[in-house]
Amino acid sequence: MASNMDQGHKHEENEGGRSWVGIIVRLIVAAIVLMITAWLTPGFSQIGFGTALVAAVVIAALDWVVQKLFKIDVSPFGRGIVGFIISAVIIYLTQFLIPDISISIWGAIIASLIIGIIDAVLPTHVL
Q1: Cβ-based neighbours of 37, under 8 Å, separated by 6 or more
Q2: Is 68 exposed, middle or buried (0-12, 13-18, 19+ CB in 10 A)?
Q3: 66-116, pLDDT tens digit by residue?
Q4: How far is Cα 39 from Cα 45, in angstroms, rounded to an integer?
Q5: Are 58 and 101 in contact (CB under 8 A)?
Q6: pTM, to two decimals
């Protein structure tokens, strides 16, 4: 009977071992973090929740691509200066994929710093 329960939970997890509910919660938290970051950061346009949620998905996708291509974790503080710079570049590039966002280079650098600080306290592992 226990094996049937284990099999039921296996289909709810993706290949990284995270449940879909966990991924959705992380994306929602990341969207809220992006909204707070946009509010605090000069050079980062104010965004609504829907735009922030789409941006969180785009940033997560770009993060995934960088991790797969270069084998680098791009969390702002998790991998030192390289992770910080790549995180800022990903944030900056997001504006070209989402029309409602405008981010200056300095805004992306400051946003990477703020997201890194927030991520240190409340890990989302989406950014």
Answers
A1: 44, 111, 114, 115, 118
A2: exposed
A3: 888 877 666 555 567 877 888 899 999 999 999 888 999 998 998 888 887
A4: 8
A5: no
A6: 0.74
